[in-house]
Amino acid sequence: MQGIGRHWPVNGESPRSDLGMASSGSVCLPAHRGVEHRSTSPWSTSPPASAPPSRRQLEVMEERVAGAITNLHRQLLADRQEADMLVQQSLNRLEARLGTCEQAQ
Questions:
Q1: Which residue of 5, 18, 31, 50 has the smallest Cβ count within 10 Å?
Q2: CA 64, CA 99: separation in Å to the nearest integer?
């Protein structure tokens, strides 16, 4: 029966599920009783908002955040070292130019 279920756009059109019919550019998936439609994205691993996260889930999230912060600190250190090296190279070139200018006078 057309009009039951969720309508997903094929051509970038907005879904027409609120009208109870599929538009010309959408696919109508059948509705199943008792089946909750959730995102299947790998980023949506958390339970529904009504359930609080478990201790293990919090520990995993803390480990991920700590790892991300550690990686950011490493990148910051590498960027600072590169900036220091570039500054030193610029100073060396400037001193060489000044020496050349002084010799020319």
A1: 50
A2: 53
